[in-house]
Structure prediction request, 1908 residues.
Amino acid sequence: MATQNGPISSFVPAEHQEAVSAALQSSLVDLIDLSLVAKQLHWSVVGPRFQSVHEALDEVVADARTFTDEVAERATAVGVSPDGRAKTVSADSALDEASAEFASDDKVIRVITEALAATIKRLRANIEKVGGDPVTEDLLIGISARFEQLHWMWEAKAA
Amino acid sequence: MATQNGPISSFVPAEHQEAVSAALQSSLVDLIDLSLVAKQLHWSVVGPRFQSVHEALDEVVADARTFTDEVAERATAVGVSPDGRAKTVSADSALDEASAEFASDDKVIRVITEALAATIKRLRANIEKVGGDPVTEDLLIGISARFEQLHWMWEAKAA
Amino acid sequence: MATQNGPISSFVPAEHQEAVSAALQSSLVDLIDLSLVAKQLHWSVVGPRFQSVHEALDEVVADARTFTDEVAERATAVGVSPDGRAKTVSADSALDEASAEFASDDKVIRVITEALAATIKRLRANIEKVGGDPVTEDLLIGISARFEQLHWMWEAKAA
Amino acid sequence: MATQNGPISSFVPAEHQEAVSAALQSSLVDLIDLSLVAKQLHWSVVGPRFQSVHEALDEVVADARTFTDEVAERATAVGVSPDGRAKTVSADSALDEASAEFASDDKVIRVITEALAATIKRLRANIEKVGGDPVTEDLLIGISARFEQLHWMWEAKAA
Amino acid sequence: MATQNGPISSFVPAEHQEAVSAALQSSLVDLIDLSLVAKQLHWSVVGPRFQSVHEALDEVVADARTFTDEVAERATAVGVSPDGRAKTVSADSALDEASAEFASDDKVIRVITEALAATIKRLRANIEKVGGDPVTEDLLIGISARFEQLHWMWEAKAA
Amino acid sequence: MATQNGPISSFVPAEHQEAVSAALQSSLVDLIDLSLVAKQLHWSVVGPRFQSVHEALDEVVADARTFTDEVAERATAVGVSPDGRAKTVSADSALDEASAEFASDDKVIRVITEALAATIKRLRANIEKVGGDPVTEDLLIGISARFEQLHWMWEAKAA
Amino acid sequence: MATQNGPISSFVPAEHQEAVSAALQSSLVDLIDLSLVAKQLHWSVVGPRFQSVHEALDEVVADARTFTDEVAERATAVGVSPDGRAKTVSADSALDEASAEFASDDKVIRVITEALAATIKRLRANIEKVGGDPVTEDLLIGISARFEQLHWMWEAKAA
Amino acid sequence: MATQNGPISSFVPAEHQEAVSAALQSSLVDLIDLSLVAKQLHWSVVGPRFQSVHEALDEVVADARTFTDEVAERATAVGVSPDGRAKTVSADSALDEASAEFASDDKVIRVITEALAATIKRLRANIEKVGGDPVTEDLLIGISARFEQLHWMWEAKAA
Amino acid sequence: MATQNGPISSFVPAEHQEAVSAALQSSLVDLIDLSLVAKQLHWSVVGPRFQSVHEALDEVVADARTFTDEVAERATAVGVSPDGRAKTVSADSALDEASAEFASDDKVIRVITEALAATIKRLRANIEKVGGDPVTEDLLIGISARFEQLHWMWEAKAA
Amino acid sequence: MATQNGPISSFVPAEHQEAVSAALQSSLVDLIDLSLVAKQLHWSVVGPRFQSVHEALDEVVADARTFTDEVAERATAVGVSPDGRAKTVSADSALDEASAEFASDDKVIRVITEALAATIKRLRANIEKVGGDPVTEDLLIGISARFEQLHWMWEAKAA
Amino acid sequence: MATQNGPISSFVPAEHQEAVSAALQSSLVDLIDLSLVAKQLHWSVVGPRFQSVHEALDEVVADARTFTDEVAERATAVGVSPDGRAKTVSADSALDEASAEFASDDKVIRVITEALAATIKRLRANIEKVGGDPVTEDLLIGISARFEQLHWMWEAKAA
Amino acid sequence: MATQNGPISSFVPAEHQEAVSAALQSSLVDLIDLSLVAKQLHWSVVGPRFQSVHEALDEVVADARTFTDEVAERATAVGVSPDGRAKTVSADSALDEASAEFASDDKVIRVITEALAATIKRLRANIEKVGGDPVTEDLLIGISARFEQLHWMWEAKAA
Prediction:
């Protein structure tokens, strides 16, 4: 039943294998970049709301890292070695490039809100493509659920 | 991509926004009432099975509270401020009104079993209405799963 | 020594039984409403101070819930089944009705500060009525102590 | 300020020293006996409610032991060596003598409920005698609070 | 709304009840057998990779046991008493019979990889049959997700 | 000093090796069956005492599983690969076959009490046969100690 | 196989039942008295070594209480309701009567060392009488092991 | 109801406000000094009882710090900013000045016992002045309870 | 090798003993004052950022207290009894005197930032003086590392 | 004393500021890349040693992430916003580019060993450049210490 | 009853005292040497199985250390001061001398397996000599049980 | 860059390799001996201060063991297999030989104080020799820091 091209076989129906693999790889790249961008802002932020923004960004980092591992290990479980290298992230991420300068808390809140929105946007598009594999579908829905919650929290800070 | 009427934007497709909002609000009201009813029975119960009924009711309270927060924060994540005030709960709950008198464990078991059934009934109806937003759908399925398990446990006590 | 009308007897001197029962019931209603109002604000708040206000409100919820259980179980311990149903809370609470719309952090801080003040006010009045039962007196003093501390913290945020 | 007859001095006003010492000693004896009686019943109980009665009795034991230590160390803190020996407990306890035979859960519930009532009765009488030392008064009020709660729980099982 | 033949009622639509019950029973049997086979190999394995294989097998046991309970309690929640007896497992399991002799780590890795594949195969078939009950569907997807991950890890060891 | 037929050597004196191996194998089979029977009853039980019986059965499962591993790993430590497969358990267990139907708590209590008695009976017989290996003897005594305690607790529920 | 006079049956061979019961009852009485004596000394001790003696006595109390429960529940497991009432302890204990006055650390060390020695002495005598029941024998050996260790530690303080 | 001069309002009746404020401020100063003195002795002590005195002093520090925060935050809760600066402590403390030289354990025990006595003395005087605010009264009683216990323990070491 | 003037000897080379002692004493005084100043501000702060400033100040207190103990115990380890009394702190601290009035969060942030800068300044000067004792040098470097990190965090809040 | 160009001031002597900043930035880039490379290998590895290599790589990730944060926050503490973006890492890392294909455990061990060596090499060179700031020097020494330990462990696997 | 030659008395019958003392001393020496040998191998091991062998050796160290303390404190409990000095271990150990050079994992597995076998061999011989003291006998049986289990695990790695 | 003679390479500059290796080996031997001597005294001590000396010695053991592992693994990290065998410890330790007889607490305090002094003496000498490798230097400084603290604590007990 399981198909196998490399060392690891897959239980995903053959006709869905490619869509699932592509969705996992693009989400992986966004998640790694989200963790790097959130860490960058964690260090760069200054301003009256420094403390709570600095801390809330580390929650984004923690979630992005956890989901990165889950998505990558779903890729291996369907027989594909994911690509999470710096140059691949730099080339393929859906997120805007961040600045590395010190930045005000207001600006940082805008940047992370947009980064979350870009991540969710591609996740929701991917969810629609992976219906042929309910396991992958379920994983991406769970990730979007958490990031939509975080997106509200960051948007609320700018309201 | 995200629609926005108030301070918080939504990633739910516009045509599903209303159904999703309504489902979350009605489930929220039932969950709050369930937590209040279960606490009321936790205090009112007397009889030979007092100890285990008293304790099992607090598990219902704990689950109802956890799910209340998840449902309400899903509402905010889709741009809607949920309404969890006492008067709204009193007006809109799908649960029967409980008594505030001391009551026998047999009666208390019947009341909480019916309260769980009413909660599950509206949850299952809501699940069918929110298919346009897999995140909300997944959340409500998870809640129904737990309450159907608890319903069995309370029904078993009356068998 | 213990008096008994229903299934549970009381060690409170008979002449103080009614005052003690009334004080516990009115404090119970305020505490439940405080937990519902604080949760409502926890969901509705937006603005620059979203994060810390959102979190601090959950501390109010947690304390209100703990004290609710202690007050209700003191009522049962003096032979009275407390009434903590939604409609009773809606009818008898000393707190002002909250709004269910998204609200700025400034406004939310004012609303929760007033809710705490209303709770403390009735608690302090009740403390003066229950001197005939040192156990109930001690319980209400402990609750007021914590809420006066929280009241300072919320007032400080508005200073 | 502190009075001293033996190796340890006391901060209790001299005119209240004797009342305080007597109240602590009599409560100590009851608490030790309560812990022994509850353990005895913990072992002797049989019947359909064995499991929950067996476990609930161990909670009584745990509370009685904790309060025993607090009362005894309050005695030392007012300069008096408390007497918690088996023969003193056997001679001075306010509790009825228990049976050491296997006993039905119904009977065990009656026995522990009466033992709690006897403990509370002497505690409440002692509270009225120790007003001259607010520290001791506060301690005894706290103990009565817990035992009145437990008394309700055991009475509820017999309702 | 809920259908009921025995002591426990079901919220699954009547036309899906039989398919759901059958899927849960067959998965239950496989999960119990998987836990027994993995334990058997845990004891029988010898060879250079003894330590890590011995430990990794206990993770399979732990997961299989957790899922066993979840699947069985889902059966009771839909009104069916599951059958997890040794003779039923022996008769109905989809897994190949294991040997009880000491075996090399290479062989053990092959056996457990095949056992996981057989479990996943029937799980995926069952997932397609239970679409009429989203709660059961969600449960089986979650189990397959974990076992597909473990299958990769065991296959990787043989690569 | 150590004897060795397969890959693992034994420190048990050669003349006691066979008796020790046989005792461990028969106890292993009973322990696995006990864990399966107790789980079966954990799911099948209904009735007024559902909650405490359901929970107490899981304690039997937990103990049976822990002892299963200890007995099986004692077998490997004396150079024998134990046999814990479903078909062996089904064929060789000393326990009566359980029913898989929903059953009243009264009946479930009788069944588990008898299962414990059958387990203890063969354990005590085995203890007398393994005196030549004090390590195995000590292990079986410890298991019997725990099950005799559990047997009392279940018998007490039926008294 | 199991003999039964009261509600609980016994797996101890009939000819050893009486010796086992007697040994458990006498050890129980000593253990309860040891816990009361050690607590008494815990409160009465004064002197340069107050701190460490006060604390080390509480370790004796904790161990004595744990063993008390194990011995009493071994009695129930062999079908006998143990007798742990204050008057029985007062009458049957092998320990010397302690004083309830404040006492120097030197004296307290002597008293507890003698109490431990008396406990061990009867334990060792009982161990020789219960060889017909290896479970009880193993339990008493384990208790003596711990008290002999504590006896050394107290004797070392006086050296 | 609440009075307010600065940014924070008070629920203490106006006629008791001054007495309550003064009592809290003087207790605060003593508590800070107690923590500094106990730390000083923690470092300065030498002698045969070094280890236990060194450790027991850190318990005094920990308690004094906890109570310091509670007293100071009670002051803010009644609308008063407490003064806990080094120069205020140095000027207003009721405790004798300690030495900063290495000191024998005997001397250190005398010094800390006197420091505790001075703290308790002013606490007990303050308790009598704050009866108009039961919350503050309860707080100071709780602190005195703990320090009277510690005073016994230190006095016992010198006996 | 170790030099010794008082009861405790030192492993610091004799020619560096005085510089090391002086550096430790001056840093000790600053650290105690920093803990007192941070606590004072913890109580005095009011304003929109009350919550996060109030909490962040307690982290400064915690670190200052931990380092205080480490520095003082390094002094004892080099044979010197440190002086941490209120009057010494009041006289020798390098920190500016704080106000004890309620103060806005803006002002509080400035005051604690300056207090940290003053502490770091003397620490860095001391580091240059204690090169003859690498143990003390390492300790002071570690303290400066943490306070420079905190200084950034407080400065960032004012940016 | 502290120099300041942007929003954050520095306590590093002005003449060492540039060297310290450069050292921190280059080490940061290597650490981020090390965490990405180790995660990549964590996913790509297959072969007989899969399990232990897979797990040991996650330890490298965890350490690299912790050190990344410490180095970046040391940069902010000296007034410099570090640059940890994907494109910077991709451009400036001292590590060789990894492959994203499935790879044998032997090859993976070689790659991670070389990545650790490259990291250590630049760390050791940086340590020699930052002697003017003992805080930064101490931080980099601590990082090298851990990576040299890990380097041994990976080299040992290839021996 | 207890015999006493030095400061500590013994409850072992006088005729068994010498055999018990000798058995404890020889087992102590082996256990200390086993902990030193296992640590030596923990550092010296290189090769493909480095990671799991390195870690498994630390489990041997941990067990050997725990048993060392139990055996030595059993010696003191029977009135004998055990001898655990390096030169005694070097002279009297039953284990072969290990090499201190780097060694392949294959060789290390052989060496530790032999060291465990030598330890078990003397333990089993000692168990036969100490039957006159059931406490010591029980202790040595428990140690042998654990080491026989470890011996199987190491032997399995070489199979 | 790294030099390599055996299976493990070193990042220590070649000209410092020998000094670093020698320093680590000699410190290792002292640390192992310190752990053995402290354990020996832990068992041998008797006298009025038995309890606190017995416990404080186990802290020395714990620290010595932790540092032993750190020093030995630093040796492997610089390419050298350390020698921690009993005979090497017995031959090369800088510590005086201890007695294995029961000894008074006074004497034990003298012996452990001297053992710590000898350990520190060689550590400080080694620190001066390993300046060419800052990682090793930092490790030895950290160890000396802790032992100088412990040395003060033991010396204080003899003052």
Remarks:
- The helical segments of chain D are 14-44, 50-77, 86-92, 105-129, 134-158.
- Residues 19 and 129 of chain D are 6 Å apart (CA to CA).
- The interface with chain F takes residues 45-48, 50-52, 54, 102, 104 of chain D (CB under 8 Å).
